[in-house]
Structures are given as C-alpha cells and as structure tokens.
Design brief:
328 residues, alpha+beta, Butyryl-CoA Dehydrogenase, subunit A, domain 3, Nuclear Transport Factor 2, Chain: A, 7-stranded mixed β-sheet
Length: 328
C-alpha cells in the first residue's frame, strides 16, 4: 500500500468521509463491472456497489491494510454479489430458458468501463472489454456463483490464488479447483474469437462500413440486403420476449425483418458490452418524432453479422448516451 493510500486509510478510519471517498473512488468502475459480471444486471450491479461501499465504511475499523485496498474492496463486493446471487435466479439470454422462472441478461454501457480496455493486471487472462462481451457474461451466468467468482477474480481481475481464496474465505487449493471447473464449463459456451479480436482485425473503417450497411438496409426496408449481411448460422433474440431465431433462414422469417419500405426506423450508434450497438427508433405520428424501441447489440464475424440481440428496453437509452427521441 502506497503512502498516500495509507494516509487516506488512516484518515478514513478516523471518520473522514472525504478521505474514504478518495480511497475507494479509483476502484468504482472496476467494482461495477465486477458486480455486473457476477449478476448479469446493471441495476443489480449498481445496488451491489452501493452495498459494498456501505459495508466497507462500516468495516474500516477491522481493515488493517495488510491487503491492498483493491483486494479488500473486491472481497467485499464478491461477497455482496454472492449474497444477491443466492436470492435471485441467474440471468440468461434466449434461447436459454428465462422468465418467468428467471430473468434476462441486461446490456452494459461501454462508457462505464472508461478507458480501461486492457488487462486489469499482468496475471489476467482476459482484457476488460473481452470480459464484458455478451457471450462472456452469458457464459458466466451458467456457472455456480462461487465458480463464477473464482474465474472472475483470477482470470479477469488477475488476483492471485491466495487473494481469491481470501475473498471467498477458502483455501487456494479450493480456488484452483473451482477455477479449473469454471474454465472448462465456460469454454464450452464461449466463441472461438472475441469481438475485440474481430473488430481489431477488421479495423475501424470496415466496422463502420458494416454498421452503415445495416442501418441503410433497415431504414430502407431492404430485406435481401439485410439477409446478405448475415452469416449462415446467424441468430436473433429480443429480450424480454422469449422468441428467438437461429440460422439465416429462420432470422429472415423473424420479427427482425421489416414488413414495409421505408420502415420509419432510424438509428443512433453507441457501444454496449464492448460491442457495436445501435439505438433503434421508430416513427410515432402522435409524437411527431422517432421514439426509442430497442437497443440492438451486434455480434460480428468477419464483415458479417453473426448475431443481433434487440433489447426491448428503451428505458435504458439514456444510460447509453442516446437521445430520448430523434426529430423528423
């Protein structure tokens, strides 16, 4: 622990709330992403971070500073998330079974990650944006919560086996055993290439071209052009609706396809879960404007679209920096 960090800790333990804020503030984004990976919900993650900070403030007299502030806060956050996960069903994406027994995975705004796209530490196996992609977070939700925590602590955050064991109140041997099982189970669900690797290989100009072709085709209601953008095994889901389609032919017959041209749709680009995303707006005659209807998160494979998740939750638009409406 640095001298500055120790001074802030000493002041916070003496009751200085501003010192406590300055002590924990550098870890805020990382804690939020950690809780989101654990819970699959931005709303739940924000609640978990608030509870983490409350427990940290109350627990200051017992924190002697032998561990780093980062490890101490993530230990608290992990246990808060485990407590929440024990009370709630895991969040999933179609075609996995979801509501009413469970709940759907929620999107995560890239802006909340800040500029930290790389690895959290040299020991981490994943980049921070790789570990926020929809496929990765969805795979995590299929793991038992403690295995999920072990994988995130070790492979995403780069904590040592001892630090992860401290966070989970177990031995390093138990952590490593849980980690091996988690890696094997998650690996069965993860794609061969991450979206980060795909977008780096394509380059910014090619990614923009794919997005522009998608937007032009949908705004013009050009179904052949839309289908031509899809991979053969493309899939489409639209939470909170359980219906989904897998395969280009099935997607061509799905709700994704426009029924008329022009469609009255407009789009605004954003980023979600480290992936290309578009706010979708539909013309509303009564409002005299295009109003939000869905957040489309695209999964790319080469210069084609392998998946579209259309989150029919327009109330999240502001969290993604998207306007409430688009004028005519």
């Amino acid at each position: 622990m640095s001298g500055t960090e120790q001074a802030l800790l000493d002041a916070a333990r003496a009751g200085d709330e501003d010192a406590f804020r300055r002590l924990v503030e550098p870890f805020g984004r990382q804690l939020l992403a950690h809780c989101y990976r654990m819970l699959g919900s931005l709303h739940d993650a924000e609640d978990a971070v608030q509870e983490t900070l409350l427990r940290a403030w109350r627990g200051l007299p017992r924190f002697e500073g032998r561990a780093s502030s980062r490890a101490w806060l993530h230990r608290i956050a992990t246990n808060v998330a485990l407590d929440m996960a024990a009370r709630r069903p895991p969040r999933v994406l179609p075609p996995d079974p979801g509501p009413p027994a469970g709940a759907w995975l929620e999107p995560f705004p890239d802006d909340l990650l800040g500029d930290d796209a790389g690895q959290a530490s040299p020991e981490a196996a994943y980049e921070q944006r790789e570990a926020i992609e929809l496929a990765f977070v969805a795979a995590l939700q299929h793991l038992p919560p403690r295995q999920r925590a072990a994988l995130i602590l070790r492979d995403v955050l780069g904590f040592s086996a001892r630090e992860a064991g401290d966070a989970l109140d177990t031995s390093t041997a138990s952590v490593e055993s849980a980690l091996q099982r988690a890696r094997a189970a998650a690996g069965e669900r993860l794609p061969q290439r991450t979206q980060q690797a795909t977008m780096r290989e394509l380059g910014d100009a090619a990614v923009r071209d794919v997005v522009q072709r998608f937007v032009t085709a949908f705004e013009g209601g050009d179904v052949p052009a839309i289908v031509g953008l899809l991979t053969e095994d493309a899939w489409f889901a639209m939470p909170p609706h359980p219906e989904h389609a897998r395969g280009r032919d099935a997607v061509a017959e799905s709700w994704l396809m426009p029924e008329r041209a022009p469609t009255g749709l407009r789009y605004a680009e954003t980023r979600a879960n480290g992936q290309v995303a578009l706010g979708t707006y539909a013309w509303d005659a009564a409002a005299g404007a295009h109003l939000p209807i869905a957040l489309d998160v695209l999964t790319l494979r080469g210069d084609r679209i392998a998946g579209v998740v259309a989150f029919r939750t327009p109330e999240v638009f502001r969290r993604f920096g998207l306007p409430d409406l688009l004028p005519r």
